[in-house]
Amino acid sequence: MTCAEAVRSLSDYIDGALAPGLRAEVEEHMATCHGCHVVLDTTQCTILLYRAARSTALVGERRDELLRKLEAACHGCGQGEPSGGAPPSGLSE
Questions:
Q1: Is 21 exposed, middle or buried (0-12, 13-18, 19+ CB in 10 A)?
Q2: CA-CA distance, 83 to 67, in Å (whole number)?
Q3: Rounded CA gap, 24 and 61, in Å?
Q4: Which domain holds residue 60?
Q5: Is residue 91 situated within a structural domain?
Q6: How many distinct structural domains can be found in the chain?
Q7: Which of 1, 26, 28, 34 gets the most CB atoms within 10 Å of its CB?
Q8: What is the pTM of this model?
Q9: What is the pLDDT of residues 20-61, one digit of tens each?
């Protein structure tokens, strides 16, 4: 898989909408390509931050806790192992 193919599949990969074979190809590419892994991590962090910023229901301690988790999850985005399309640890939808 090329970088262009991986990036074209990124949205469906994050959404969990890829066929198992194609998902495996993307994961293999992400495991060996630092640049694409950085794009994946950055995209996932951007999505999480956007969702958090749009939320008006979170106030006080709950909001502060979520922001701390987001900052911790996104600290060093692009470093370490690929996250496989899942939200950074400690966060769920």
A1: exposed
A2: 20
A3: 39
A4: 3-74
A5: no
A6: 1
A7: 26
A8: 0.58
A9: 999 999 999 999 999 999 999 999 888 888 877 776 666 778
